[in-house]
Amino acid sequence: MNLCFLTAQIATWPEKYISKKGNLFTHFFIRVPNPKKGNPFFYIHASARQETALQLINWYARGDYILLEGRLRLKTNNNR
User: Fold this and answer.
1) Which of 6, 33, 50, 77 is paired with 69 by a 20 to 30 Å CA distance?
2) What pTM does this model have?
3) For domain 3-71, which CATH number applies: 3.30.365.10, 2.40.50.140, 3.30.1300.10, 3.30.70.100?
4) Whether the predicted pLDDT of 52 surpasses 70
5) What was the pLDDT predicted at 38?
6) What are the angstrom distances between the C-alpha of 36 and each of 26, 27, 42, 74?
């Protein structure tokens, strides 16, 4: 299992979505320090479901630091 812990800063305002089945989701971007020269941060698209999504919307804002626990799913973008 791919379980990780990250300390990250919320880079965008969390946006709330409700699926056709009535499930609550939120999507946002986080940023973590990047050790490569020239790029101070690495941006990651993150999402949360149900109660965690509601807490993100109510308690956190852009620029806040959060501790994340979850799974990583990597997708590469070859359009550079």
Assistant:
1) 77
2) 0.71
3) 2.40.50.140
4) yes
5) 77
6) 29, 26, 9, 18
Rg of the Cα atoms in the chain: 14
Domain spans of the chain?
Answer: 3-71
Q: Where are the beta strands (DSSP E) in the chain?
A: 3-10, 15-18, 24-33, 41-49, 65-71
Looking at residue 43, what is its pLDDT?
86
Tokens of 55: 């807490």
